[in-house]
Amino acid sequence: MNILLTNDDGIEAKGLNILADRLEKDGHSIYIVAPDSNRSAVSHHITMWNINTLKKHTEKRWACSGYPSDCVCTGLQSDLFNVKFDVVISGINAGANMGTDIIYSGTCGAARQAVLNGVPAIALSLDPVTWNEETLNNMKYQALADFAAKNLKKLISLSSTQVPRIFVNVNGASRDSYLGVKYCQSLCIREYGDKLKIVDNGGVTETHFIPGGAVAREDKECDAYVVKDGYIALSRVYAEPLAAEIVDGMQFKL
């Protein structure tokens, strides 16, 4: 298969490179357009009024000054590669992208952009479980990369490029093996508890982001708890926003 890889952690990220190596072992043709540095939590940001620059690493590997969705657009809508891609894979991300995270995720933004461009897409993310320097430096990507490679055709079949378009969201904990795979239609609702601190820096008023903790509301069937229990959480996520029905009988004045 022709596979376009991207991420939001940057082109040098371990997760991206371990995944690329694993897929190449199965004989797939791997092409990469990824941000030139970390672009976490940029959601579906697309560069419209500025110019992005590309840096060539190899014929099939390029770094982009823009955002994850820019990388997907570059790979699919330009003549950089002139290849018909079978799938776009975003990741493996260093950090979970479950439930509420999907709104903010550059990883998921890239997968969303791919299906909007008519190519099946998979987002892969790894939960470090505990956020400290030692854990983050020793994330275990291989088991999730193996899962993606072994089940690639099945994962692609779960994506849809027809309206309503769907990308596949896959999360697992940082571990050497998994107990199994669970499909999660219930996605977690996060309470982040983030704050902004106002700081006067020599007459310049600044806002400093102070992270809270991404605590999931209790729901034993949701993706966050499935991952916590040692399983891979797999979900199908709509790319387009879908509106809920309005309350019956509501009247409006004109």
Explain the layout of strands and helices.
Elements: E1 2-6, H1 14-25, E2 29-35, E3 54-58, E4 61-64, H2 68-77, E5 87-94, H3 101-104, H4 106-116, E6 121-127, H5 133-137, H6 142-150, H7 152-158, E7 166-173, E8 181-183, E9 190-191, E10 195-201, E11 204-210, E12 215-216, H8 223-228, E13 232-238
Parallel strand pairs: 1-2, 1-5, 2-4, 5-6, 6-7, 8-13
Antiparallel strand pairs: 3-4, 7-13, 9-12, 10-11
Overview of the structural elements:
With 254 residues, this protein is of the alpha/beta class. It is 25% helix and 28% strand. The chain contains eight helices and 13 strands. The strands form three sheets. It has a nine-stranded mixed beta sheet, sandwiched between helices. Strands 9-12 form a two-stranded antiparallel ribbon. It has a two-stranded antiparallel ribbon with strand order 10-11. The relative contact order is 0.15. The mean pLDDT is 95.
Which stretches are low in confidence, meaning pLDDT under 50 for 5 or more residues running? none
Overall spatial form: globular
* H/E element sequence: EHEEEHEHHEHHHEEEEEEHE
Structural class: alpha/beta
Largest sheet: 9 strands, mixed
Strand order of the largest sheet: 3-4-2-1-5-6-7-13-8
Radius of gyration: 19 Å
Give the strand content. Answer: 25-35%
What do the pLDDT scores average to? 95
Calculate the terminal CA-CA distance, rounded to whole Å. Answer: 56 Å
Q: Give the number of DSSP strands.
A: 13
In DSSP terms (H or I, runs of 4 or more residues), the helix count works out at 8
